[in-house]
Design goal:
There is one protein chain. This protein is an alpha/beta fold. The protein folds into four domains: 131 residues, Response regulator (Rossmann fold, 3-Layer(aba) Sandwich), CATH 3.40.50; 159 residues, Rossmann fold, CATH 3.40.50.300; 69 residues, Helicase, Ruva Protein, domain 3; 46 residues, Arc Repressor Mutant, subunit A (Orthogonal Bundle). The protein is 47% helix and 15% strand. It has a five-stranded parallel β-sheet with strand order 2-1-3-4-5, sandwiched between helices. A five-stranded parallel β-sheet has the order 7-10-13-6-14. Helix 6 packs across helix 7. The chain is elongated and about 115 Å long. The N and C termini lie far apart (86 Å).
C-alpha cells in the first residue's frame, strides 16, 4: 500500500491505544511517532516536525471532562505554524466536540474507532496540512518577489528640483485612494512612480497588478480585464478571473492607457464607475475594490480634442495628474543616475569599480537623452560590459542623436551652421582645441575667436 509523506504524532496515556493506532496508520504515513505523556509534546516539537497530531482528551483516570486535552490543544495552536489536530476520546460529548473544533481541532474521533473512518480522518487532516503549507510557501515566495520588485523600483535616483517636487506629491498622493494618471515620455520611469505610490499606500500588503494596455488586442481586451467563464469562447476551457478581480483590494496599474481603442473605452468607464465587472459569458456582476493608476506617453488631451479618447473617461482616471520630467530637464541627475547604474552593473557583471572621467561626464550631460533614463541605463550597461577601463572614456559610450528634419523655413543660417559644426567638432574631440582646430582647418587663435563669438561653453 502506498503511503503518504506525512509525519504523524499520536499522544495517549494508554500504550495499547498507541500500539493499535500506530499499526493501523503505518501503512498510510511515512513516519509515526507516539508519546504516552502530553508533557513531552513541547520537547518533541522542538526537535521534530509533524503534520498531524492525534491527541487524546483525557489523561487522569478520574477526570473525564476533556479539559486536559483542550489545554494541550491550545498549546499546539499557539505555535507559529501549528499542526492539524485530531482529538480522540472515549468520553465524547457534543460540548467537548464543539469546544475542540472552536479552539482549532481539525476533527473529533470517538474511541473505540472504526478503522476506515480513522484512516480517512487522518488522511483528510494530512491533506489539509499539506495545503496550508503550500499556501504558506506561496506567501513566502510572494513576499520575496515583492521585496525584489520593491528593491528594483523602490528608490528614485535624483536630486534635481523637478524630482524633489515629484517626491513631495507622491508622498501626499500615496496615502489616499485617489486615481492617478502619470504623464511622461518613454523611459522616464512611469511604472517606477506607480510602484512607489502603491508601496507607500494602505494597499501595499498586496501586490500591484500591472497591465500593458498597448499589448492587448481588441479581441482579448474584455477577457483580460474582466475575465471569462468556461465556454465563453472557443479557447475558454475554464473559468478565469480578469485583472480587475485579481487586483481587488490592491492597486491596478494601466500602462499606455492612451492606446485603448475608442470602441472599448465605454466598457472600461462602466467598470470604473460602477466598481463591478461581469465576466464574458456570465450575467453575474462581481464587485471589485481597486485603486487605479494609469500612465501614458501620448498627449492625452490632444487625443480628447481629436475625439480619439473619451473626455469622461479621462476625468474618471485623473483625480491626480503627475508629470514626469524628461532626463534633459533634470539638472545634475545624469551624474547621479550614471554612478548608480555603474555600481549596479558592476556587481551584476562582476567588473571592477568603474568611474567617469571629466570629459565623459561632460559628454553625457550635453547629450539630450531622447530615450530618457532607460536609454542612459542601457548605455551604462553596454559600457560596463565592453570597456576594460576603470575610468570610463567618452568613446565607451555610444550615443546617437536623432536626426532632425528641417523644413525650408527651418533652414539654418550660415552662422548657425558654423556654430553647430564647431560644437560638434568640440564634442567629438572632447574639447581638445588643437585637435578640433586641425579637423576644422583653423588655427588655434581663429578657433578661440569663433568660440568667443558664439559663446560656446
Amino acid at each position: 500500500m502506498k503511503h503518504t509523506e506525512g509525519n504523524i504524532l499520536i499522544v495517549d496515556d494508554n500504550v495499547d491505544v498507541l500500539f493499535s493506532a500506530k499499526m493501523l496508520l503505518k501503512d498510510h504515513f511515512k513516519t509515526i511517532h507516539t508519546l504516552n505523556d502530553p508533557e513531552r509534546i513541547p520537547e518533541f516539537l522542538d526537535t521534530k516536525s509533524c503534520d498531524v497530531v492525534m491527541l487524546d482528551m483525557n489523561y487522569s483516570g478520574s477526570d473525564t471532562s476533556g479539559k486536559e486535552g483542550l489545554y494541550w490543544l491550545r498549546k499546539l495552536m499557539s505555535y507559529d505554524h501549528p499542526p492539524q489536530v485530531v482529538m480522540i476520546t472515549a468520553f465524547a460529548t457534543i460540548e467537548n466536540a464543539i469546544q475542540a473544533l472552536k479552539q482549532g481541532a481539525t476533527d473529533f474521533v470517538i474511541k473505540p474507532w472504526e478503522n476506515e473512518k480513522l484512516v480517512a480522518t487522518m488522511l483528510s487532516a494530512y491533506q489539509l496540512s499539506k495545503s496550508r503549507q503550500e499556501v504558506r510557501q506561496l506567501r513566502i515566495t510572494q513576499d520575496h518577489l515583492q521585496k525584489d520588485i520593491d528593491k528594483q523600483f523602490g528608490e528614485f535616483v535624483g536630486q534635481s528640483k523637478a524630482m524633489k517636487e515629484l517626491y513631495g506629491i507622491i508622498s501626499k498622493v500615496a496615502k489616499t485612494d485617489a486615481n492617478v494618471i502619470i504623464l511622461g515620455e518613454n523611459g522616464t520611469g512611469k511604472e517606477l512612480v506607480a510602484r512607489s505610490i502603491h508601496r507607500l499606500s494602505l494597499r501595499a500588503h498586496k501586490p500591484m497588478i500591472s497591465v500593458d494596455l498597448g499589448s492587448i488586442s481588441e479581441t482579448l481586451f474584455e477577457s483580460e480585464l474582466f475575465g471569462h467563464v468556461k465556454g465563453a469562447f472557443t479557447d475558454a476551457r475554464e473559468d478565469r478571473a480578469g485583472r480587475f478581480e485579481i487586483a481587488s483590494g490592491s492597486t491596478l496599474f494601466f500602462d499606455e492607457i492612451g492606446n485603448v481603442p475608442l470602441t472599448l473605452q465605454a466598457k472600461l468607464l462602466t467598470a470604473l464607475q460602477n466598481r463591478v465587472v461581469t465576466r464574458l459569458g456570465s450575467n453575474k456582476q462581481v464587485p471589485v475594490d481597486i485603486r487605479l493608476i494609469c500612465a501614458t506617453n501620448v498627449s492625452i488631451y490632444d487625443k480628447v480634442m481629436e475625439g480619439a479618447f473619451r473626455e469622461d473617461l479621462l476625468y474618471r482616471i485623473k483625480t491626480i495628474e503627475l508629470h514626469l520630467p524628461p532626463l534633459r530637464e533634470r539638472e545634475g541627475d545624469v551624474e547621479l543616475l550614471t554612478c548608480h547604474f555603474l555600481e549596479m552593473y558592476g556587481r551584476k557583471y562582476r567588473k571592477q569599480v568603474m568611474k567617469l572621467g571629466a570629459d565623459t561626464l561632460r559628454k553625457l550631460e550635453r547629450y539630450s537623452w531622447p530615450g530618457n533614463v532607460r536609454e542612459l541605463q542601457h548605455a551604462v550597461e553596454r559600457a560596463v560590459i565592453l570597456s576594460d577601463h576603470r575610468i570610463l572614456k567618452p568613446e565607451d559610450f555610444y550615443l546617437h542623436e536623432p536626426v532632425k528634419k528641417h523644413s525650408v523655413k527651418d533652414a539654418l543660417t550660415l552662422d548657425e551652421l558654423e556654430e553647430a559644426t564647431i560644437k560638434k567638432a568640440l564634442d567629438k574631440n572632447t574639447y581638445n582645441i588643437s585637435k578640433t582646430a586641425a579637423e576644422l582647418g583653423l588655427s588655434r587663435a581663429a578657433l578661440y575667436r569663433k568660440i568667443q563669438k558664439y559663446d560656446i561653453k
